[in-house]
Amino acid sequence: MSLVEKKYGNTSINRIADYQKNIEVFQAFSKDVQLSKVNLYLNQLLPQYDNIIQKQEDYWATPKEFLSQGYGDCEDYVIIKYFTLLALGFDEKNLFITVVHERFRGGTHMVLSYFQTQDTTPLVLDNLSFRILPLEQREDLIADIFINSGGVYKYQNKKLVKAASKHTKYQELLTKIKKGL
The dihedral of CA 44, 49, 55, 57: what is its sign? Predict the structure, then answer.
């Protein structure tokens, strides 16, 4: 019996197997279709706040933890979409874990941003929407910071400007993933 099966049960093993099978199928599609399929597929998992799941605020779950539990909050969706698209061959320089402010509801939210080219507005993959739209069409969101292994960036005049070389939560996430969590 695997650690995942012991801790989370048989359903988790089936969910992980289904995820792996779908990712293999998605490899046959164009990048645009892959974006849509990944967003739709992963948005089917149930949302739940960190303080309920993890008994703490702002916990960044690894893709394995998210799939094992079967639910997570906004950053958990972003993280699994980010690593799924990397596995499908997307260039990491074009993918960003993005902290946004919700203009109408207030509060902070996370989405995944994908820059098709450096000169275009990023597309937004959001667990609250099955539609993938350019950031400029998401009037409900104000982008704050963009995070990937290259560092932390601000979006100014439709260009990314480096603000820091590392993000602590992102570094902690990479450490957990390397440990197999």
Answer: positive
